[in-house]
Q: What sequence folds into this?
C-alpha cells in the first residue's frame, strides 16, 4: 500500500488549497480515507474522513471551510480547504486502514496572516 499526498504550500489567510492523496495497493473503493494534521508541538489530529459510501465527518474546527471528497476511478481522495486560517498551518497526512493503518508522507500547509 502506498499513499502519496500532494498539494500543500504557502497561502495567505483567507486563501484556498486543495490537497490530493493518491492511493495504490488496495481496493480503494472499499476503504475509509482520512486526512489528519499535525502542527509543531501538537498531537496529530483528525481533520476529516470519508467512508466507502461517501459519508463524511469533520473536525469542528474545519466544518464549513473544508470539504473531503474521493474519486474511486482515480484512487484519490481530496481535501478542499477554503477560508484558511493561520491556525490551519500543519503537516497534513492522509490515512487509511487496510489490514493495518497506512499513512502518507505528509504535505506542508502554511497559512500566513
A:
Amino acid at each position: 500500500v502506498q499513499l502519496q499526498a500532494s498539494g500543500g504550500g504557502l497561502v495567505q489567510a483567507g486563501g484556498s488549497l486543495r490537497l490530493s492523496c493518491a492511493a495504490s495497493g488496495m481496493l480503494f473503493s472499499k476503504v475509509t480515507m482520512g486526512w489528519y494534521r499535525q502542527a509543531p508541538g501538537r498531537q496529530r489530529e483528525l481533520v476529516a474522513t470519508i467512508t466507502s459510501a461517501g459519508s463524511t465527518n469533520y473536525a469542528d474546527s474545519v466544518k464549513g471551510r473544508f470539504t473531503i471528497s474521493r474519486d474511486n476511478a482515480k484512487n484519490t481522495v481530496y481535501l478542499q480547504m477554503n477560508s484558511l486560517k493561520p491556525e490551519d498551518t500543519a503537516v497534513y497526512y492522509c490515512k487509511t486502514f487496510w489490514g493495518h493503518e497506512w499513512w502518507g508522507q505528509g504535505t506542508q500547509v502554511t497559512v500566513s496572516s
User: Anything to note?
Assistant: The longest strand covers residues 90-98. The chain has a mean pLDDT of 97. The radius of gyration is 13 Å. Residues 66 and 81 are 4 Å apart (CA to CA).
